[in-house]
Write a structure and sequence with these properties.
alpha+beta; Nonspecific Lipid-transfer Protein, Chain A; five-stranded mixed sheet; two-stranded antiparallel sheet; transcription
Length: about 300
């Protein structure tokens, strides 16, 4: 609480600062100021809201997929935040499919106008918050979900590709996500928490922190591939997948960080003509017979 005194209070402060009792009574819903930053913050700066907008801007639209990108938010809070954003005109609900079974969430023009804000916020975070990433923040599930949204579907071969990730250095609270799978296809990308039963094209092993550093653009893929991060499997897939997952450009250069990319990758709910040089540390490809799949199924938000 402000306890000092202004010798010559400005007109702005005289108009903008209400009585203390009134301020405390309304601070949960309003800053009580006409300042545009204050009014925008009442909508955008609530807990979880920027991350919900982040998910929508990466091409995610269903309640289920938004929730997967925010694993620590409760369903009740997510429902509340989505309703608030809809009430403020930032998002809108649209029927899903011709039969109208359920609905998806889409940005309105007002919501799309937040892209410049998100871009600036991401740049600021890349510059000033790197040292705030703690070991407990290193969530393999969030990383894999981020990679799923980042896949360039147009560059994939015309067949299914299965990647198995084996992470070390995972926080104790997230060890159930130590091994995960990405199933790539031109029609979409699936995330599996259990063995999907398909032959593995490429197994990737390494410390979760190293993968996060590559994902955020703090480390070049080529500097750690075959050393800190080991690859085991199909050599051609190993050459191509850094481009598919936007770790590298088709010319072998480091790709921009996720929030700086030109646009979101196409996301589905339920070939490069020039490949980088051979990664070291490769071994012969292994395969296995198919088994019954066990994939995570989508669920819908309860009706409003």
């Amino acid at each position: 609480m402000w306890t000092g005194r202004l010798a010559l209070p400005s007109l702005f402060f005289g108009l903008a600062i209400p009585a203390a009792g009134d301020y405390i009574g309304h601070m949960s819903a309003s800053y009580g100021q006409f300042c545009p930053i204050a009014k925008a913050s009442e909508i955008f700066a609530t807990r979880w809201t920027p991350l919900i907008v982040r998910e929508l801007m990466t091409g995610v639209h269903s309640f289920n997929d938004i929730h997967r990108g925010l694993p620590l938010i409760s369903r009740a809070v997510l429902i509340a935040r989505l309703r608030e954003l809809e009430d403020h005109g930032v998002i809108e609900r649209r029927p899903r499919g011709a039969e109208g079974a359920g609905h998806d969430y889409w940005l309105t023009p007002a919501g799309d106008g937040l892209r410049v804000v998100m871009h600036a916020l991401g740049q600021w975070g890349m510059t000033y918050t790197h040292d705030r990433i703690k070991r407990s923040d290193l969530d393999p599930a969030l990383l894999i979900w981020g990679l799923r949204k980042r896949v360039d579907l147009s560059s994939l071969p015309d067949r299914r590709v299965v990647l198995r990730f084996e992470f070390s250095g995972v926080p104790a609270s997230r060890t159930k996500f130590r091994i995960m799978w990405l199933i790539l296809g031109r029609s979409g990308v699936d995330v599996c928490m259990k063995d999907p039963g398909f032959a593995i094209d490429l197994t990737l092993r390494g410390n979760i922190r190293d993968y996060v550093e590559v994902y955020l653009g703090h480390t070049n893929w080529r500097d750690v591939a075959g050393t800190a991060l080991q690859l085991d499997g199909d050599l051609q897939i190993a050459r191509a997948f850094p481009v598919w997952l936007r770790f590298e450009t088709v010319n072998g250069l480091n790709a921009p960080a996720p929030h700086l990319s030109a646009g979101p990758a196409s996301v589905q709910t339920d070939h490069s003509d020039r490949l980088p040089s051979d990664p070291s540390g490769m071994r012969a490809r292994s395969s296995g017979g198919p088994r019954a799949t066990d994939r995570r199924r989508a669920y819908d938000a309860p009706p409003r």
